[in-house]
Amino acid sequence: MMRNIGRMTILMLVVTCIAPFIAYHLANGAAIGALEKQLQRSLVLTNRAIATEIERFRYLPLVLGEDARIRALAGRERTRDVLEAANRYLQTVVRQAGAAELYVLDDRGIALASSNFDTAESFVGHDYSFRPYFQDALHTGEGRYYAIGVTTRKPGYFLTSRIDVPGQSPIIVVVKADLLPLEATWKAAGVQTAIADRWGIVFLSGNPDWKYRPLAALSAEAVAQLARERTYHGANLAATKPILPEGIAPPVGEAEAPALHVEESGRQLLAKFSVVEPDGWLVLAATSTGDIGKLAGFWALAALIAGLLSTGTLYFLHQRALLIRMRLRQSEVLERKVAERTRDLAHEVDMRKRTEEELRRAQEGLIHSEKMAALGRMSTAIVHEVSQPLAALEATLATAGVLADKEGAERVGERVLDARALVKRMQRTVKHLKTFGRKGASELEAVNIDTVTRNALDLAAPRAKVLGVAPLLEATDPSPVVIAVAVKLEQVMLNLVLNALDAVEGREDPSITIRRTVEAGRVSVTVIDNGSGIAPEHRERIAEPFFTTKLTGEGLGLGLSIATAIVREFGGEITFAEAPGGGTMATVSMPLGEQATFPLEAAQ
């Protein structure tokens, strides 16, 4: 015991040295995970706020296009009264709707009317054909684009719709939405939130240092296109430093990208992105990781203190054990003498124990051998598969008796023939069960798989009728042929159908489907039921001999074991899986026979 305590003390010292590092790592990971979840929630709220702000004005251009004063601008003769009416109407709508600006362009991109027509920054007469929102609306019917206004120098989100007037040139109605209130909200809350366009340029941000800066270095193509479109007119994008570290690209096209570590103004930030469609914007949410190191250090210190306390306790126990050992030495001499005198007796007792152990093992081996021999004898006496034909035979003979009382001689003869057929079927089944353990007990032949399946359904029909189930056979022409023994294969199908009937017993909507398919040189017959299914812990043992989940007396647990052995004898296999919506799918898969398949009508 003393050695164990000493070893534990040394082990505890090692653990005490390692524990702070592990605690620091775990605490750091947990804190970063919590921050990532917080950032993800912030991204979800930001995305909803952006969508809500934009959708406020999405249909405003189409609504304006239905007004006669706006549609009159599509005419060839735009009189002063027509222009005045359109300008006043746009001015009124801006005041009521809360949009930044409203204006109408002709098919050349020239502003015809504007809500700010009476100001120094009036759009009227200006050419906006270079803007993507005008080109998109002209060709596709609508457009959207965020940019700094070339006339007002104020940024905004432009939403456009093309208005088609019969017999006239189309006009483009533009609404400019102001998203700066979102930015003001982020600044007031002190959150590190920003929105970047598809080029990765931040155009709205709660951090003023990020605005009009690219997330990563811009390509020459991006700089050239932004210059053509005058997207951020007046901002020197090429000279600004990217926000993300060199070598790290923004997660363009990813719905939910992993978090990134960013250094900004000497601070370590954890940043997470999400995508806003249909513009392909990137929403960035970041938070400082400065407190994570302090929290992780606290837990590392706590782990170190706990380790030192545990090590001190073990050292105290070690010293106490040394004192106890010194006291016990005094009694060792007396114990040695007693041990010498009792050694011979102990040896004899040990020999007797070994002899008894060998006898017990031999007895267990004999019991086990007898048990296995009894199992071999029982395999030739299994006749539980004939229970259904016996029930049908009893019903047939009872019907024959009733008909005999009514002097229905011809119908009695038919029932007797049915009874003889059932007896012959039982004889064949019992014969094959008795010879099941011997190879070559029956000759292989070309067997029609659909005929076998229908025979099994006929045998199970009385049981199915009692349960109120009508098994459905799904098979398409032609019917395949396999090399097997018809009676044995019929036994397999019958066992699977009966198991399915047992599974759906008591259900309000029992359903059994037998589906036959052919693929890649193999034929598969799947019995599907909507019963309670097979428990996961039973799925691996379901084909073991004598394993059963039924109540005592309802079965020996040999049915699926025998069926599995029969199918394997013919080169096939049986698999079990959970059916969609609950229940069990039992599939028999066998290779196709050498003979060609023949029409399904012949199988019937």
From TrEMBL:
InterPro entries: HATPase_C_sf, HATPase_dom, His_kinase_dom, Sensor-like_sf, Sig_transdc_His_kin-like_C, Sig_transdc_His_kinase_DctB. Keywords: ATP-binding, Cell inner membrane, Cell membrane, Kinase, Membrane, Nucleotide-binding, Plasmid, Transferase, Transmembrane, Transmembrane helix, Two-component regulatory system. Gene3D superfamilies: 1.10.287.130, 6.10.250.3020, Histidine kinase-like ATPase, C-terminal domain (3.30.565.10), PAS domain (3.30.450.20). It is found in: Cell inner membrane; Cell membrane. PROSITE patterns: HIS_KIN. Its EC number is 2.7.13.3. The chain crosses the membrane at residues 296-317. Pfam families: HATPase_c (PF02518). SMART domains: HATPase_c (SM00387). One of its GO terms (cellular component) is plasma membrane. The keyword Chaperone does not apply. Residues 381-594 form the Histidine kinase domain. It catalyses: ATP + protein L-histidine = ADP + protein N-phospho-L-histidine. It is a multi-pass membrane protein. GO terms for molecular function: ATP binding; phosphorelay sensor kinase activity. Member of the two-component regulatory system DctB/DctD involved in the transport of C4-dicarboxylates. DctB functions as a membrane-associated protein kinase that phosphorylates DctD in response to environmental signals. This is C4-dicarboxylate transport sensor protein.
